[in-house]
Specification:
Length: 700
């Protein structure tokens, strides 16, 4: 019993949960009787689901640390210090940089081979690739980012539950697990990929409405290339899953093999077989299917890929979050499309110089994207586990590394941009124009780093709404500036508009990360844990009850006010600050004892708890909820039988004998002390994969 139900102490009154130090047995709070008008039973307990915000979990007592020491640890002192978190970030980011470069490299290889076929074919392939990327990017990138966050969250929660029930890591690693986020993502990817394929095939003629010699080869390339849409997005979904596991090496291996095969097939299909642009398209599509196959094969060794459990809330959550990121992607694409169209109006030479600067800028941004990815995966994992202090250190460290990287890139580009631009052209006029954009390319690098990293941190805490709205706002303001400045100042006005776009995103990111809405990462759960209430809470109740609870602690148990954090939780599981009792909700006493049922008279604890809550709320029909942390069984009981008792839940892995003893012990207490018939009492179990619910326990 001791192995599966570790000692815990936790007492809360009137819908409050307080986790005191082990020496404390129980705490009661005096509350106004006006909150106790209804005797309706509380809502039935449900296992916490991964919703982007961590549920309330067991809080282990810690030694108090000095404020200076905490702040020093939080800020991650030493901008150049290479600590464990810094190494984790770099370990994720460095392989990710190469994997992110896969798509540009694939396009570059196709362009290089087709360029030897003819200029018309080269131009046709360029247009086709642009259209394919535009259509796919709108849906593929949002799914990739959402998958990374959701998988990281569920992975962290699943690992925490596995540790809680003492499953050895070696044994767990040998088992294929089920994570709904992975199956849902792959199912959505397959569906979206098929829709993209059909749209591109049927619409290739319309999309390629070009009255020139380019039309036939462009339409031919795009039609064949469309068959690669499903494996592209499925591979991205799989990459998102691996990123959620903080594994960027496996995707790097898969895309590396795919690019190598693409280059080999290009050389065979285009020239020896004489297939031309069709050969280039077939080579690319074949390599994309191979990449997707490798990723799915590797992922299948860890995860159950397909399950009927993908139907439900996970799909809705993906669609909501994905829609927000689609809006964000549209804002980015439209802003850069507008800048390109305005540059094209300046003439061919200014347009060529602008394109050189833009391509250098986009290529360098891959480094910032990789840092954002690392921050997203680490922050999502720590946040889901409730490790707020470590999440805060991750936040600071990613911003620090991003700032250093941005300054370093700016310096390198400022000194070497002239040599780098020679790789694109040797036309003196174009080079002169490109040199005018060097300030934008270099000075914007630190700003870009902050903006990209902030995006990753939004995603890490599933703050997709702010990421979308802030980017839409920045895009609208910047587009207005572009429309006004470009006609007057030419490329200088365009650079100013793009610099403003990135600056607004960076400012919004820094503001958001320091705003009240994200202060929850700065409230580490100390020894006494959070005070929590479920259900709708009015601001008046928050202030009144939260204030009285905080005042009661120093006077009764010498608990400092600053060690208490009021926190509300509404019906949708959305957390906010404040505490209170919702109108029409009958308060109950939530007791987590520091004893097991093994040889201990738990009935005394239950009886005393019932008297305590009856005294607090002044009602003889008071009832209590008993919680034994570790195996997490729950029971409702009281001097008056509630309409429903809620579930008694155990998270997999309990010894059957322990289950039986636990069930019999609680059932006897409810019957003998509270006159609750055994027939009204039951146990409900679900396994550690959170996949299957079933009546596996002893039912009385």
């Amino acid at each position: 019993m001791a192995a599966t139900s570790p000692p815990m102490t936790s007492v809360a009154a009137a819908a409050l949960v307080l986790t005191p130090s082990p020496a404390l047995n129980r705490i009661s709070f005096p509350f106004s009787r006006r909150h106790c008008r209804s005797a309706a039973p509380p809502p039935r307990w449900r296992p916490t689901r991964c919703r982007g915000k961590p549920g309330v979990t067991e809080v282990v007592a810690e030694k108090e640390t000095s404020p200076d020491g905490e702040e020093e640890e939080v800020r991650g002192r030493g901008w150049f210090m290479v600590d464990e978190i810094g190494m984790d970030i770099l370990t994720i980011a460095l392989p990710a940089v190469l994997a992110l470069a896969a798509n540009p490299i694939t396009a570059l290889v196709d362009t290089a081979f087709v360029g030897h076929v003819g200029s018309t074919e080269l131009a046709a392939v360029g247009v086709s690739i642009s259209i394919f990327n535009l259509v796919c990017k709108l849906l593929n990138v949002p799914l990739l980012n959402v998958t990374t966050s959701f998988v990281a969250e569920q992975q962290a929660v699943e690992a925490a539950e596995r540790n809680e029930i003492s499953i050895p890591q070696e044994k767990a690693s040998e088992q294929r697990r089920f994570l709904p986020a992975v199956s849902t993502s792959l199912a959505l990817a397959a569906g979206i990929g098929l829709m993209e394929m059909v749209a591109l095939i049927l619409g290739s003629g319309t999309l390629m409405d070009i009255d020139s010699a380019m039309r036939v080869p462009a339409e031919q390339f795009l039609t064949l290339r469309a068959y690669g849409a499903p494996p592209v997005i499925v591979a991205l979904a799989a990459q998102g899953a691996f990123r959620g596991f903080m594994d960027t090496k496996t995707p790097l291996f898969a895309v590396g093999v795919g690019n190598l095969v693409n280059a080999l097939l290009d050389a065979i299909f285009i020239f020896p077989l004489g297939l031309g642009v069709s050969g280039a398209a077939l080579a690319t599509v074949t390599s994309e299917y191979l990449t997707a196959f490798i990723l799915l094969w590797k992922l299948n060794n860890k995860i159950v890929l397909l399950s009927w459990n993908i139907i439900g809330g996970d799909v809705v959550r993906y669609l909501k979050s994905g829609a927000l990121l689609i809006a964000r992607t549209i804002a980015v694409v439209l802003t850069f499309t507008l800048s390109t169209s305005l540059a094209a109006r300046e003439g061919s030479v200014p347009m060529a110089g602008y394109e050189i600067c833009l391509q250098v800028w986009l290529t360098i941004s891959l480094l910032n994207d990789a840092l954002a990815l690392a921050g997203q995966a680490l922050l999502a994992s720590e946040y889901a586990k409730g490790n707020y202090k470590k999440a805060r250190v991750v936040l600071y460290r990613v911003l620090q590394i991003g700032g250093i990287t941005g300054v370093a890139l700016a310096t390198i580009l400022f000194l070497g941009f002239g040599y780098l631009s020679l790789l694109f052209t040797d036309d003196p006029a174009v080079l002169d124009v490109a040199q005018t954009g060097v300030w934008f390319v270099t000075v914007s690098q630190p700003i870009n780093a902050v903006a990209f990293v902030a995006d990753g941190l939004y995603y890490g805490v599933s703050d997709f709404a702010f990421a979308a709205y802030s980017t839409l706002f920045a895009g609208a303001v910047s587009s207005a500036v572009l429309l006004v400045a470009a006609p007057k100042f030419g490329l200088g006005g365009i650079w100013a508009g793009l610099a403003l776009f990135m600056s607004l995103r960076a400012i919004a990111g820094l503001w958001r990360l320091g705003s009240k809405d994200h202060k929850d990462t700065q409230h580490e759960q100390e020894s006494y844990g959070p005070i929590v209430s479920g259900g709708p809470i009015s601001s008046k109740d928050r202030a009144g009850v939260g204030g009285r609870a905080a005042e009661a602690q120093p006077s009764r148990k010498n608990i400092r006010k600053e060690r208490l954090r009021p926190e509300g939780d509404d019906d949708e599981g959305i957390k906010g600050f404040g505490i209170g009792i919702g109108e029409g909700k009958m308060p109950c006493l939530n007791v987590s004892t520091n004893v097991n049922l093994d040889g201990v008279d738990t009935s005394a604890v239950l009886a005393d708890a019932s008297k305590t809550v009856a005294t607090i709320i002044g009602k003889p029909e008071a009832y209590v909820m008993v919680v034994l942390k570790g195996s997490v069984p729950m029971a409702f009981g009281g001097t008056q039988e509630p309409a429903a008792y809620g579930e008694l839940v155990s998270i997999g892995g309990l010894n059957p004998d322990v289950n039986k003893k636990l069930s019999a012990g609680i059932a006897s207490i409810l019957e003998s002390k509270l006159s609750i018939p055994k027939g009204r009492f039951y146990l409900k179990f679900y396994d550690s994969k959170r996949s299957d619910f079933g009546w596996n326990g002893t039912t009385f």
